[in-house]
Amino acid sequence: MTAGVRVVLAAVGVLLATYGAWLLVSRESDLVDVGTWLLGGAVLHDALLVPLVLVLGLVASRWLPRPARAPAAVGLVVLGSVTLLAVPVLGRFGAREDNPTLLDRDYTAGWLVLAALVALGVVAGTIGRILRDRRGGRGSNRCSG
Q1: What is the largest distance, in Å, between two alpha-carbon atoms of the chain?
Q2: Which residues are 96's β-sheet partners?
Q3: Has residue 3 been placed in a domain?
Q4: How far is the C-alpha of 67 from the C-alpha of 127, rounded, in Å?
Q5: Alpha carbon distance 107, 112 (integer Å)
Q6: For residue 89, what pLDDT is reported?
Q7: Is 72 exposed, middle or buried (0-12, 13-18, 19+ CB in 10 A)?
Q8: Contact between 90 and 110 (Cβ < 8 Å)
Q9: What is the pLDDT of residue 132?
Q10: Under DSSP, is residue 131 helix (H, G, I), strand (E, B) or coil?
Q11: Which among 91, 92, 81, 88 is positioned nearest to 114, based on CA atoms?
């Protein structure tokens, strides 16, 4: 990527961020909601997701074979983060009977599909690591997580 393309992409990013900030500030009533959402997300991440991932990682490091550890950790972080973000729709918070177009999908089924795809990715990553180690590929002589 050339320097000119990077400058253009950076300029577009700055313009979009400025527009988003202007929209946020121009709707004063949204500031409290956005602040609550951002603070709540940070608290949930630090108070719930991180300790859970650390405990599960410790348990998994003793239970899972070495090639499965890194893919399982990635899958856990991805699925945990997406699940925290999906709590409002999974719980159907904000659904209203007078507006059936709000939360009009089966979000639980969508989450289950995502969980299955993440599990498949973990299995594929594990198989890839096993095959790489058997071939004596890159990293097979070092201690890999």
Answers
A1: 62
A2: 99
A3: no
A4: 8
A5: 9
A6: 87
A7: buried
A8: no
A9: 92
A10: helix
A11: 81
Q: Which residue in this structure is represented by tokens 């997300």?
A: 41
3-state secondary structure of 74: helix
Number of helices (H), then strands (E), in the chain: 5, 0
Domain assignment present for residue 118? The answer is yes
**Integer angstrom CA distances of residue 137 from 7, 64, 85, 130, 142:** 38, 21, 37, 10, 11
- β-partners of residue 99 are 96
Please state the domain count of the chain.
1
Residue that is written with structure tokens 């320097």 in the block? 3
Q: What is the mean pLDDT of residues 59-77?
A: 90
Q: Is residue 79 part of a domain?
A: yes
Q: What are phi and psi of 100, to 5 degrees?
A: -70, -10
What is d(CA 97, CA 70) in angstroms, rounded to the nearest whole number? 44
Q: Which amino acid is at 59?
A: V
Domain assignment of residue 88, given as a range = 64-135
114 assigned to some structural domain: yes
pTM over 0.90: no
Token digits for 54?
A: 């650390």
Exposure on the CB side of residue 32, measured as CA atoms within 13 A: 2
Encoded tokens for 9? 């992409």
